[in-house]
Amino acid sequence: MKPIRLDVTSQESVGEAVEAIIKAEGRIDVLVNNAGYGSYGAVEDVSMEEARKQFDVNIFLLKNKATGFVGCALLQF
After folding, report:
1. What are the distances in angstroms from CA 66 to CA 39, 42, 47, 49?
2. Is the dihedral of CA 62, 65, 75, 24 positive or negative?
């Protein structure tokens, strides 16, 4: 297993990661998703900008990664 650098909030970065893995390994067998973070404190103290950023990372990035990695995995079968 070899870690790679990836900005999970960037669809371009996801695509580059997929391409790098395919070039180096020829296929993708496993995707480990461990990206995410929390904002702590009272909800009224969290700005809307911070709340949106957190949702982008914790929720919507799954769609970005799924589009890149699952699409590639489906082509392997």
Report:
1. 25, 32, 28, 25
2. negative
Residue with tokens 């950023």: 53
Tens-digit pLDDT profile for residues 9-63 = 788 888 888 889 889 988 888 777 777 888 888 888 889 999 888 888 888 777 7
End-to-end CA distance of the chain: 22
Give residues with Cβ within 8 angstroms of 8, minimum separation 6.
14, 35, 57, 61, 64, 65
The pLDDT value given to residue 61: 75
